[in-house]
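This protein record is not my work; I was only asked to verify it. The record follows directly below this note.
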Amino acid sequence: MLDQMYMLSFDSVILDEVLSQEPNMKVVLNSSNLHHSLTTDEVKAKGYHAVSYNINVILNHTEWIEQFRNHGIETFLWMVNTPYTYNIGKELGFTWVTTDFYDAITAE
């Protein structure tokens, strides 16, 4: 079932260990601040499948989204609990959004 799961962590050391134990696991680096962010090249070199950014971080670096996409790295936006932030995620081209209220944010 590994193809149906993502392992998410704020700690790249944990993700590195997961990949050492299970190289086919899709791992996601979660970041809530710029100091724990990795460059596109670093994410790709580590073999991470995706990155997940808090909206307050990524709005300061929207160019990263296209850089990750160009390297085949999926992007998650969190926490998306309003239609407004959902639409920002769509407009910026995020692969996924993380939400507590899917029905509410996608209702038109």
Notes: Residues 42 and 48 are 9 Å apart (CA to CA). The beta strands are 6-9, 26-31, 50-54, 74-78, 96-97. The mean pLDDT is 92. The two ends are 34 Å apart (CA to CA).
